[in-house]
């Protein structure tokens, strides 16, 4: 796993964003990034830098750790048959 682009749990970002009553656009504005970056992170299509991930966590009132995949989840994502 690249320490600069940790694997995020896109579903957790989505759930917390929705629970906070934010659209992807509103979260992007709070974080200072694009809606496309938020959307990609939620889909798991792109990773976030630690700096952006930290801002996302702050905007969603949680910790960075809350938004990361566990090692088991990351392993399952790499090899779905391992589950």
Which features characterize this protein?
5 helices, mainly alpha
Concise account of the structure shown:
This protein has 83 residues and is mainly α. The chain is built from five helices and no strands.
Describe the protein in words:
The structure is a single chain. The chain is mainly alpha-helical and 83 residues long. It has a single domain, classed as 434 Repressor (Amino-terminal Domain) (Orthogonal Bundle). It is 54% helix and 0% strand. It has helices at residues 10-19, 24-31, 35-43, 50-59, 71-78. The longest helix is centred in the N-terminal third of the chain and has 10 residues, at 10-19. The protein is globular and about 35 Å long. The model has no long low-confidence stretch (mean pLDDT 84).
The CATH fourth-level homologous superfamily = lambda repressor-like DNA-binding domains
Q: What is the strand tally? A: 0
Shape: globular
Largest sheet: none
Mean pLDDT: 84
Topology:
Blueprint: H1 10-19, H2 24-31, H3 35-43, H4 50-59, H5 71-78
Helix pairs in contact: 1-3, 2-3, 2-4
